[in-house]
Design brief:
heterodimer; A: alpha/beta; B: 2 domains; seven-stranded mixed sheet; about 35% helix
């Protein structure tokens, strides 16, 4: 693609990826030290996808994520301190400690949640896209999901409905080659998930998911199409998760050599070289790194220092209270 | 007040709520030109247009997913699941998504989402189009459930559901659509969580759901002729459940029969009975009786279906068992 990426976006892509990577490496360590309960699915290696797509989005655009959702929230503007507090199960977290890593959300940033039911987000995002279309707004709605999700019924129903209603939905498949432990070569006959769009009459493309520039440009086209009322797009970004499916995964389903080969394709290292080649100074990048380190340090301190939820709050927030005029029947 | 069918009462509620709020829209299979399989929405397309009366592909997961996503972002969808049996192919969107989204997000969103569906047998619709599945949803915190047993409630409960900022499921009974009731033409609301005492009595309390309310009233009339005084209570909503009204009645009568068309095992009668037994143990003169379908898939042939499903005679017999019990 010969199209130029604006300089500020180039730096933004680097910063977003680096913020995600730093957050993930920090939580991996904190998880190992027992500071974070539950499951932890990290986005290490896949940062270019969230960064490249979300660089095209406005605050009011909506996204929905997966069980591997930290990167998407960060790319949509999530604050590391509130995220860290949520992962720690603290009252100050984005979801008051009720969601955790797998359900982290910030609707005010257009982030409709990490979702731990594989494939579910693809149908929900159509609802967000419908709201925009229904209200005559030029907002778009993006669902992130994996190659595994492309085998769920929800995915197929979602693409079809988005197509027949010309919804401003963008389906971003992060094809990281494994559905948990099952390789793509086993779980589907096709090589490119993008091929599935043909069956629904919607455009699609496959890009190098470790190249934030390529992802950015593909998403730019899809976003423009959706904003102008021309309907949905399926983008497949081929990438790889460097860590296990979850922290603690014995990873018996892949070789060290395979992981090592993908480490060499690190999207952040690659992009750093691109920027340096383009004349961005090393100091500029180091300043960004230092700022993120500082932010992370504060985030951990904030989470550590935050109060636990009051057990009495465990059953609050199930229902929204009825409006006053309905309370007396 | 006008005499109207249950179907017309539902349609009036839909029309009034569509008129009241531009954010309200409907989506479902065959609901537009065709007017829905039960013709509830017939004519609404002409009145409100295809933007608000939306035919969908045959995709229950996509219907409910779009309802969840649009409710989370500011609209007020009314989704239709043609037969409640079809929930089974799309339960994730109800159970894991709609019921939990507000909670998982720490209360940051509301989901003003109404799901209308149909329940019940007696039409030879056989095993996959006849079930009563309300107990599945009563088991999931985060959902509100109603089973209107008459035209008045069909209109008033639905209107309250559409105004409710939470996910609601309304089970409309297929056998009631053609029945007529006196229903006000003007807008009115039936609040959720208030049981309705339809027939006062002193000997036995019968808590009945959906079309078992009609059967129970018939049973009460028969039993009155034989000198047994039956109190018939329709909880109208299972979540919230007005257990206080039921407990109060049982403290008066000392006997409880719960009647629903769903099969007995795992039915909501077990839950209601247990709550009453706990709160009115000392008042009970007999074990709690449950009336429901025999534990079986619903058969096709009318003679077989009648064998499986409960009716007024089953209520009469249960009342007598309660009356005749001696410790």
């Amino acid at each position: 693609m010969g199209e130029k990426i604006p300089k500020d976006v180039e730096l933004q892509l680097y910063e977003t990826m680096q913020r995600i990577r730093s957050f993930e490496l920090a939580v991996i360590e904190l998880f190992a030290r027992g500071k974070i309960p539950g499951f932890l699915h990290t986005y290490v290696g896949e940062e270019a996808v969230a960064a490249g797509v979300c660089a095209n989005l406005r605050p009011e655009d909506k996204i929905i994520s997966t069980h591997r959702g930290h990167g998407h929230l960060i790319a949509k503007g999530g604050r590391l301190d509130l995220m860290m507090a949520e992962l720690f199960g603290r009252r100050t977290g984005y979801c008051k400690g009720k969601g955790g890593s797998m359900h982290i959300a910030e609707p005010d940033l257009g982030m409709l949640g990490a979702n731990a039911i594989v494939g579910a987000g693809t149908v929900i995002i159509n609802g967000a896209a419908l709201t925009a279309q229904y209200l005559g707004k030029d907002e778009v709605a993006v669902a992130f999901f994996g190659d595994g999700a492309s085998n769920t019924g929800a995915f197929h129903e979602a693409l079809n409905m988005a197509a027949v209603w010309d919804l401003p939905s963008i389906f971003v498949c992060e094809n990281n080659a494994y559905a948990e432990s099952t390789p793509q070569t086993y779980h589907q006959k096709i090589e490119d998930v993008a091929d599935r769009a043909l069956g629904y009459g919607i455009p699609s493309t496959t890009v190098d998911g470790n190249d934030p520039g390529a992802v950015y440009l593909a998403a730019k086209e899809a976003v423009a199409r959706a904003r102008s009322g021309e309907g949905p797009t399926l983008i497949e970004a081929k990438t790889y998760r460097i860590r296990g499916h979850y922290e603690g995964d014995p990873e018996i389903y892949r070789t060290k050599e395979e992981v090592e080969a993908w480490k060499q394709k690190c999207p952040i290292e690659r992009w750093r070289k691109v920027l340096l080649d383009k004349g961005v100074s090393a100091e500029t990048l180091e300043e960004i790194d230092a700022r993120i380190d500082q932010e992370l340090e504060e985030a951990v301190a904030f989470a550590e220092g935050s109060p636990l939820p009051d057990p009495a709050e465990a059953r609050s927030d199930i229902f929204t209270p009825l409006p006053a005029e309905m309370q007396n029947g | 007040m006008a005499e109207m069918t249950y179907r017309e009462a539902v349609k009036q509620a839909l029309r009034e709520e569509l008129q009241n709020d531009e954010r309200v829209f409907m989506l479902g299979e065959d609901i537009a030109e065709f007017g829905g399989t039960f013709k509830v929405s017939l004519g609404l397309l002409e009145e409100f247009g295809p933007r608000r009366i939306r035919n969908t592909p045959l995709s229950e997961t996509a219907i409910l997913g779009a309802a969840v996503g649009s409710a989370a972002t500011g609209l007020r969808p009314i989704a239709e699941i043609m037969y409640s049996d079809f929930f089974a192919v799309a339960l994730d969107q109800v159970v894991n998504q709609a019921a939990k989204m507000r909670f998982m997000f720490g209360g940051k969103i509301s989901l003003p989402l109404t799901i209308r569906t149909t329940m019940g047998g007696r039409r030879s619709a056989a095993a996959q189009h006849s079930q009563c599945l309300e107990s599945w949803f009563m088991h999931i915190p985060g959902l509100k459930i109603a089973l209107p047993s008459n035209g008045y409630d069909a209109k008033g409960l639905l209107k309250s559901a559409v105004r409710d900022p939470n996910p609601t499921i309304i089970f409309e009974n297929k056998m009631l659509y053609n029945e007529k009731w006196d229903v006000p033409e003007e807008p009115f609301f039936v609040p959720w969580g208030q049981a309705n005492i339809l027939h006062e009595g002193t000997d036995v309390t019968v808590v009945a759901l959906s079309d078992m309310v009609g059967f129970s009233l018939k049973a009460a009339d028969k039993l009155a002729e034989e000198g047994v005084s039956v109190e018939v209570i329709d909880p109208r909503t299972l979540m919230p459940l007005d257990i206080d009204t039921i407990v109060q009645s049982v403290r008066k009568t000392g006997r409880l029969v719960i009647a629903h068309e769903a099969c007995v095992t795992g039915g909501v009668g077990g839950e209601i009975g247990s709550q009453v037994a706990y709160r009115a143990f000392d008042y009970l003169a007999a074990p709690v009786e449950r009336v429901g379908a025999k534990d079986s898939p619903i058969p096709f042939a009318p003679i077989l279906e009648r064998e499986v499903l409960p009716d007024d005679q089953d209520v009469v017999e249960a009342v007598y068992r309660a009356m005749d019990y001696s410790a």
